[in-house]
Amino acid sequence: MSKILVALDLPTADEAVSLATRLKDDVAGFKIGLGLLMGPGPATAAALARIDRPVFVDAKLHDIPSQVQMAARRLGQYGARWVTVHASGGQAMMEAANEGLAKGASGKAGILAVTVLTSLGPEDLERFTPGTSPGKLVSRLAKLAAAAQVEGIVCGVPELGVVADVAPGLTRVTPGIRPAKVDQGDQRRSATPSEAAGRGADFLVIGRAITGSDDPVAAAQEINREIADA
Fold this sequence. Notes:
This protein is an alpha/beta fold. The protein is built from 11 helices and 8 strands. It has one domain: Aldolase class I (TIM Barrel, Alpha-Beta Barrel).
């Protein structure tokens, strides 16, 4: 069974659905982010859900609880299996997201709490949270997410062990995954698929290594083999 949630960071919904259709037998699900949500719109999630794979809507909601609840409910109505919120929005906000998504979804659905973006390095955190580190901040936010009873956490590979220690019941999703020969792009705390799998990630978010490949299906299959070997 694949652990790949492929990030469909493509210009149009048609392109996303077309690629998803080709990849559906080789991935665990599909992720759509702000680019598609702010362009074609959340109906993209509904189109992808019809392919019969889980859809991860990476909305990164962060607002007052009532607004987050409403947004999560809407995304659930569009067929989202998972919706992300920023854990830094607080326990009440995450609980409101849980409630909204549960009301909107027709099947199983859960909130994933985003901790520290993998585009941030230790020096970035030092600028606005002096004296902390990615590991310490992820630990605090993971405890908060567990108290809010969300389904899972989004964290960098280096922090997987921290999450396993402080919130072992949470599903662990890791972005910033780059095979060894793929450019890191804007990721600061990236890792290879084998590193992520070896450290206990439940799902790996992988985009450009697959979507930017000349043969996306073959790329996904190769990454699945790497994960299995780990």
